[in-house]
Amino acid sequence: MVECSLRDVPEFTGYTGKTRHGRYHGSNFWDVPDFGSKRWVVGVYIDLDFSAVTEGMTEDRLLEECVNFLNVPPPRRKYQKKKSQPRYGILSPYRAKIVEVNGRKCLSALVVTSDRKNKMFWSEGNNVPTRKRN
Hints:
The protein is mostly beta strands. It is built from one helix and eight strands. Helix content is about 10%, strand content about 30%. The strands form two sheets. Strands 1, 4, 5, 6, 7 and 8 form a six-stranded mixed sheet that branches. The chain is globular. The mean pLDDT is about 90.
């Protein structure tokens, strides 16, 4: 696993108020199974240490390793009854590319999450009615 973190993103471009870790995507991704009913796509910027990454890793492999790291739930607190859940829901990789934002190199990615309304992301996932097939 590659240690990484999600970069803070403001709600609107150029706005300097509150930030969260990503934004639900407004487009429809029909190639994602159960899209709009059980899974939603989120746009994120992932910060990671590119010097520690091996040279042969592709962007898709980097995304897989980061998603595996982000899916690890936080450690349980003392006397905690409920099991800890992953902070961003159960993530799975979709697409990524390496970009430079504000002079810092990062991974711009689309990830698929199982949470429709996660407080760590702006907006909420769209419910898409399913079609009945004959």
